[in-house]
Write a structure and sequence with these properties.
Helix content is about 35%, strand content about 15%. A 5-stranded parallel sheet has the order 2-1-6-5-7, sandwiched between helices. It has a two-stranded antiparallel ribbon with strand order 3-4. It has a two-stranded antiparallel ribbon with strand order 8-9. The longest helix has 19 residues. A hairpin with a 2-residue loop joins β8 and β9. The protein has 2 domains: about 150 residues, SPOUT methyltransferase, trefoil knot domain (Alpha/beta knot), CATH 3.40.1280.10; about 60 residues, tRNA(m1g37)methyltransferase, domain 2 (Trp Operon Repressor, Chain A), CATH 1.10.1270.20. α4 packs across α5. It has 9 helices and 9 strands. The chain is α/β, with parallel strands linked by helices. Bound molecules: S-adenosylmethionine (SAM). S-adenosylmethionine binds next to β5.
Length: about 250
């Protein structure tokens, strides 16, 4: 079981993604638990102010440290010791291995920024900072949903088949092989014969080759990080030769 707590100014944004499909089922079964808290509820002033203009001037507003830190501390004092994560484009890039690592915690608390971001002093109260990519979102809410979705896939009991996590793209540092389902022929395009041959050794070989080929064509950078077997290296040479020939013809 993993618990996700979220501090946000827009709690409603989480309703629909958590009420559908796999995440909903996991919540219903008690495998994951999600609680959403409004940062405004941790303000101390009459007007429940959560932002203010930046010192030094400049456009936009900055989220005040007070309500966020109050929220973090209150949730920590009443709910154990979550790993506190600030969503920010300045954070560590989120990827497959980060998702797997975060799934080892039993309790994560996410802080969603808005506007021009959060007061720098909030950083002293978080354990880590996560970015979902080199672009700027309007707020941390969608980024948190991405992280929760990807992390949940590694939590035992969330997916129907735990095996799919082992086979997927990035799991072996390669992109996944092509997948097919019925019908055998779709608009003249046939499913590769090997997949209907029933020969599991040949199927495994074909899938490995296709994974290598797809990774070589689309994400050659991934191949630099992976330890390939002698067999893989031979296949890769074959694939490179084929690609060169196809280009030259
Ligand atoms: N001015 C900030 C900066 O340049 O770092 C960006 C502020 S952004 C408009 C508002 C909030 O959206 C951020 O505080 C953060 O919580 C969230 N956010 C935006 N892009 C993100 C990304 N790529 N990954 C994670 N969170 C992001």
């Amino acid at each position: 079981m993993i618990r996700f707590d979220i501090l946000t100014l827009f709690p409603d944004m989480f309703q629909s993604p958590l009420a559908s499909s796999v995440l909903k089922k996991a919540i219903d079964r008690g495998v994951i638990k999600v609680r959403v808290f409004n940062i405004r509820d941790f303000t101390m002033d009459k007007h429940r102010v959560v932002d203010d203009s930046p010192y030094g001037g400049g456009s936009g507003m900055v989220m005040k440290a007070g309500p966020i830190v109050e929220g973090i501390e209150r949730l920590k004092s009443t709910n154990g010791s979550p790993r506190v994560i600030l969503m920010t484009p300045q954070g560590v890039p989120f990827d497959h291995s980060q998702a797997k690592r975060l799934s080892q915690y039993d309790h994560l608390l996410f802080v969603c920024g808005r506007y021009e971001g959060v007061d720098e002093r909030v950083r002293g109260y978080v354990d880590e900072e996560v970015s979902i990519g080199d672009y700027i979102l309007m707020g941390g809410e969608l980024a948190v949903m991405v992280v929760i979705d990807a992390v949940s896939r590694f939590v035992p009991g969330v997916l129907g088949s735990e095996e799919s996590v082992l086979e997927e793209s990035f799991a072996n540092a390669l992109l996944e092989y092509p997948q097919y389902t019925r019908p055998r022929v779709f608009r003249g395009k046939r499913v590769p014969e090997v997949l209907i041959s029933g020969d599991h050794r040949q199927i495994t070989h074909w899938r490995r080759r296709e994974a290598l080929k797809r990774t070589f064509i689309r994400r050659p950078d991934l191949l630099e990080k992976v330890n390939l077997s002698e067999g893989d290296l031979a296949l890769l040479e074959e694939i490179k030769r084929e690609e060169r020939e196809a280009r030259d013809n």
